[in-house]
Amino acid sequence: MRSSEAARIAASDEAISVDELRLAARNHGMPLEALRYDITPVGMHYLLTHYDIPDVDPGRWRLTIGGHVTAPSTLTLAELAARPRVTRTLTLECAGNGRARLLPRPISQPWLDEAVSTARWTGTPLAPLLAEARPLDGAVEAVFTGADHGTERGVEQDYQRALSITEALGGDALIAYEMNGAPLPPQHGAPARLIVPGWYGMAHVKWLSDLTVTTEPFNGFQQATAYRFTQEPDEPGEPVTRIRPRALMIPPGFPDFMTRRRVVDGGEVHLRGRAWSGHAPIVRVEVSLDGGGSWADAHLGPEVELYAWRSWTMRWLADQPGDHELCARATDATGQVQPVGQAWNRQGMGNNTVQRVAVTVR
After folding, report:
1. Are residues 112 and 253 in the same domain?
2. Phi, psi dihedral angles at 133 (to 5 degrees)
3. 187 and 306 share a domain?
4. What is the pLDDT, as a whole number, of residue 7?
5. To the nearest 10°, the Cα dihedral for 90, 272, 243, 3?
6. CA distance linking residue 268 with residue 345, whole number of Å
7. Same-domain pairing of 224 and 250
8. What is the total count of domains within the chain?
9. Which of 54, 57, 260, 360 sits most deeply, having the most CB atoms within 10 A of its CB?
């Protein structure tokens, strides 16, 4: 498939379509007030399902491991759960988070800021499981196939993504079967899914059914066409991988129903939120009270697990009645800083432009 078929850009006067609304109704973001929780409750966790939620019987489920390996195998859910058990707390973010804020707008799932959540994932490490299959010389990638099946931009497919054999054998990925201490719910990939800490959500293949080691780079739709940073229709672009640094604020006060503009009483206002990065720990969060004109450091909460969000707080003396625009931006230990202005790309991927919260002080 040509990359020119990978995304369509809305015309300058084109409104959100019924198709986009249908996607928005099936998928959902995390209410921003849920940033108050260290661990997002399962029902509030953001959700993106490309096709249908498949009907997978846990008793009949099997994970096949094969391809360019010496010792292919097939595991039941009970056999998977009997292996060494690990729990990791990590923040997942959809690669398309913020897409609907880009101008011109790439047409797809119309995320604003809410496609992010943090959960505890329990399962068995991928690396030993793959090592036991003994990949042969010349192994290049591990391809993960989910049970969800559908058509996207004219291509019929099972959802598939790949990791390099180095990443699969050397990383801290899991085959997870529990979420927040309970069996995975159907919408989050039951009975088992891939978890790749630090990566955007497209890498975390749900309803996992097959792992195949290959001798060639995987060129399936979700790898070679979707989830690419591109500017022009025909360029191959760069792959979307790890989560860019981002901070979000819990909108203070109370909202207007339609516009979500916040209303606060004058006086001291306690601002708080979360920040995260898939590259390195968060080392700084700054807050602007004037739409990005000036910035002041927020107080960072304690460090948690490497790929889990970190809390931040700030006191705002809201002593000027009227309208204000609040922003927050994150910096990680690699020196990456959230941009104030948009960094546009054709598929609307990795848009970590700062959040803007409209507030009226009364």
Report:
1. no
2. -75, -15
3. no
4. 73
5. 130
6. 39
7. no
8. 2
9. 54
In eight-state DSSP terms, residue 190 is T
Integer Rg of the chain from CA: 21
Closest by CA to 220, choosing from 166, 165, 141, 167, is 141
How many CA within 13 A on the CB side of residue 163?
Answer: 26
Looking up residue 180, the CATH number of its domain turns out to be 3.90.420.10
Residues 257 and 230 in one domain: no
In this structure, the answer to whether residues 114 and 226 fall within a common structural domain is yes
Three-state SS sequence of 293-327? CCCEECEECCCCCCCCCEEEEEEEEECCCEEEEEE
* Domain final residue pick, 192, 223, 239: 239
Residue that is written with structure tokens 């990680």 in the block: 332
What are the Cα distances from residue 306, in Å, to 150, 176, 309, 352? 35, 18, 8, 19
Q: What is the pLDDT of residue 6?
A: 46
Whether residue 251 sits in one domain with residue 227: no
**Is pLDDT of 3 > 80?**
no
Tell the residue number behind the tokens 């099997």, with chain if given: 62
Phi and psi of 167, rounded to 5°? -65, -40
123 shares a domain with 12: yes
H-helix or E-strand containing 81?
helix 77-81
**pLDDT digit string, tens, across residues 303-332:** 999 999 999 999 999 999 999 999 999 999
Token readout for 199 is 């990566």
